[in-house]
Every structure is written in structure tokens, then in C-alpha cells.
Amino acid sequence: MRWSEHVQRREGDGAASCRTTALSFLQSARSFEVCCYMKNRTLNKWVRVEEGESERKPRPRTTQKGFILRRLHRKGRMKFLELFGRLKSVVIGMIHVKALPGSPLGSLKMSEISEAACREAAIYRDAGVDGLIVENMHDVPYSLSVGPEVSTCMTAVCCSVRAACPSLPIGAQILTAANQQALAVALASGLDFIRAEGFVFAHVADEGLLNAGAGDLLRYRKQIGAEHVRIFTDIKKKHSSHALTSDVSVAETARAAEFFLSDGVIITGAATGLRADPEELRDVSRSVGIPVLIGSGVTYDNVERYLDANAMIVGSHFKLGGHWANEVDPQRVKRFMGKIRKLRQ
Hints:
It is built from ten helices and 13 strands. By secondary structure, the protein is of the alpha/beta class. Helix 2 runs antiparallel to helix 3 and helix 4 (110-127) packs across helix 5.
């Protein structure tokens, strides 16, 4: 039975039941690698699996480190599948929260901010997106010292979005690089993942110098009991200079993030709304066994170039006029998701 035949999102089915069905299929397979695609260890890439094929073939001897990495890859893919209900071409809609109290552009009451976020969440939910991310994008200019009011306000917004979309996977991102705060918000709000900046390798962002924080972040996750919250990490992130690490390729950066126990890496363009390089997607996908996400620049016209990504985070394209600061356009979202459903068949 093919993957697409076994798991289809029918009208009226809940996302939670879809994810449960998908997970049971994967767990019942003869090998954890058997699905629509199977990891070819010789070529170090995913290849299509025909019906009846299995990976139960003689394997070369491997080191203990290689065995541990394979187990981590298996665990990571199963958790990704359990969360989103599919392993490829997941669509995650971005909710850009209105400027919060205390930020330079803040002018709305918290009730108005939460209502606006929930309206956008409902548009995404009704169009059939696979997940959401809630981000304080309107809090420009961003600070490297995020105050407690930001965490408190984001928790209130995320709780409202979770109540509006109880079955959708939802994540949070707090700018800039407030990764521990985002974890705390996710735990308090019942969210499923966060998007983290500055996970590995220091770089210069437009807010200043960002140091790598994987060690502190994962220890904090352990301490607060939030190990069920996935951490998807930007590499060579947008709005940044990477001259300090110009001798480290994006694939090497991805491998470093994988070694530091990232749950998935995110590739972006140079700035918000600018497309990621499809060649970088191929290089990173061949280099790591953890999920690879596209974090910017996906549109109706170029989505075919990113279908091999495990997920695509779409924000600007879903807004009126294709600009991130505008309201979500329901017609843009429906048109995009209609095309995605056809491409998935």
C-alpha cells in the first residue's frame, strides 16, 4: 500500500486522527525507513520505494556513532510524522502577531491582538494548512533583551490560537533569538514546537551579534519538562551576515545543528519573503537525516521547487499583496493549498 493511499486528509477528518493513522502505518511497516521514500545509505539520499520493497537487505558494518545517529534519525522522523501527519511538503502558515504592548509600534489592546491572531488562524485552518507558527514580527526594532511582558503577552496570544485550533500543530517564535522564552511560552500554551535562532555558530544579525545557544537551550528544555516541544532551528539565517563563518557551508552548518540535537533545520533566503536556494535544500537534505524546512520565499509560482522539503513555512505570500505586514488573504491561502493538494497526489 502506498503512503498516499494509506493516509489522505478527507473532508471532516481531524488532524489528530490523521496523524495517529500515519504513525500507526509507519510503526507497522517492516522497517522504519519504508514509506513512500526510503533512505539509501550508499547514496545518502531518499529514494522512492516501490510497492512491496523493504530495506531488509545486507548492510555494511557501521560504527557505534553511526548506529546512534540512525536511531536519532528514526526517532526524529517518527516524531515529525506524528506531529504533522506526513513527512514531505508540510505547509505551515505564519501568524505575525500585531505589535505588542511596550514595543515602539504597539497601540492595540491585548484582546484586539488576540482576536486578530485567531482570525488569521481560522483562515489557515479552514484552508487546510498543516500547522501554524505564532511570531511577534511587528515588534520592530527587535531587541536582544526581551522583557517579561513579551513572554506574557505571547502566552496570552498563543493560548487563544490554541483554543481556536485545538487539532493543528502550532509553534512559536519570539524575536530576537528569545528561544528559552519561546520554549516557556510553548509549554504554558500547549504548543508543539518552536523556531529557534542562533542555535549553532555565532553570526552578526541586524540586531547585533548572536552567539550559538544550543547547549543552554536544550538544558533549559530538560529542566522545565518541555522535551515534547520540538525545536526547529534556523541555519545561515536571513537578515544576517555570515562572514564570521564563511568557511563553513550551509551543509556543514546543518550537520553541526544535527550533532547538537536539533529536531530539524530551517533554510531561508537573505531576507523575509526572499526565496531560499533550491540547491541548498538538496545539499542539506543529502547531508542530514533530520527534517529540513524552508523558512522563506515559497510562493504559488515556485512551490514545485520545494516539494522535497519536509515542510515549508509560508508567511509573506499568504498576505494581501504578498507583503508580510498586511492581513492574511483567504483567497491566496486557498489557491496555494489547492495547488499543494494536487501536487501531493
